[in-house]
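Protocol step 4 of 5: obtain the predicted structure for the target chain.
Materials: sequence only (see below). No template structures provided, no constraints applied. The aim of this step is simply to have a reference model before the mutagenesis design in step 5. Sequence pasted as it appears in the construct record:
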Amino acid sequence: KEGDICDRSKILESENNLSRLYIIQIGNISVDSIYEAEKKVHLKADITLGKKYELTPGIAAVYLTNKLYAGASLEYFDKNFFGGGRVFSTKLEGLINDIKNNQIELSFTFTQPYLFNNNISLTINPSIGLLNTSGKEYLYSKNLARLSYYISPYTFYKNAYMDITADFFRTKITEVQKDENGNVAANVGEIENKMNSVIGFSLVHNSTNDLFNPSKGGYHSM
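Step 4 output (structure tokens):
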């Protein structure tokens, strides 16, 4: 901010804040001019913006329930959703092994890069899908909320994450299920509902030299 004491650590922290905005591809802060008599330093920010909107097709191959599924996806990004650097994306993906084994899923992601202060961000990721496999139909809804906390640039673990999930699964029998002895274990039309909720906490160390294309450094999480 104008009037602050010029500090290299603050410049690095500001560059880190810029890197957290998805619409910014490159954000560097450097000295523009120095006025020794007034003891003032003028800084400049060189910023390269990416595209605000992106529509990305994709192909996928997934090994699921002992079967190989292949398919395609379409993903839409808004990298400055209602301003403020917020990110919104939605993805539709379809996978197929054969007529009786297939999956379709629709997911959404919303990221608020600054929550309460510059060190905290929020990501919400709900999804809904339908999976048909092995005589069963799975209708599911997965929901994730993640709070990300940037600790500091000089600690070994620089980032902490807290995850809260709430997942709902509805299983419907579409073919008679038998156990290993040939006895009927489940009849067609039977339905079972399950709900799982998990709270997780992670610490992350990242000493790589680039966020997207690192050539040296290390990364691990606990």
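Step 4 remarks: The two ends are 35 Å apart (CA to CA). The chain is about 5% helix and 60% strand.
Proceed to step 5.
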